[in-house]
Write a structure and sequence with these properties.
By secondary structure, the protein is an alpha+beta fold. Helix content is 62%, strand content 12%. It is globular and about 50 Å long. The two termini are 30 Å apart.
Length: 113
């Protein structure tokens, strides 16, 4: 599939609409934090509760909860309540696709140096 045709489908007169640009900037800003990257990586293995995430990313519960709130408000993770526990998961496959593509890009840079 020709990737340029994918991008062109979103353009108007050859330009991305401002609302798309704004949303992309907000999306990449959310990804631009070490704690949030670590949380997304942990969630890439599947759904986890806050206490499991605290153990996985080695941050305080309040810090993990704060980062999860930001990730949820920005549509990168979703929450599910089961009794007293709240479980978090990646919102959809697009989040994992972007995460994996970014990781491959970074790994590629290291492999070629």
């Amino acid at each position: 599939m020709d990737k340029s045709k994918d991008i062109d489908a979103f353009c108007i007169d050859g330009k991305l609409p401002e609302e798309y640009v704004d949303e992309m900037v907000a999306f990449f800003k959310i990804l631009g934090d070490e704690s949030r990257v670590r949380i997304l990586h942990a969630l890439s293995a599947g759904e986890l509760c806050v206490s499991d995430l605290v153990d996985a990313v080695e941050l305080s519960q309040s810090s993990v909860s704060h980062q999860l709130r930001l990730l949820r408000l920005n549509g990168l993770v979703k929450a599910r309540r089961d009794g007293r526990n709240i479980y978090y998961a990646l919102d959809d496959n697009h989040v994992m696709d972007i995460f994996n593509t970014s990781l491959r890009h970074v790994a590629h840079k290291f492999e070629n140096h």
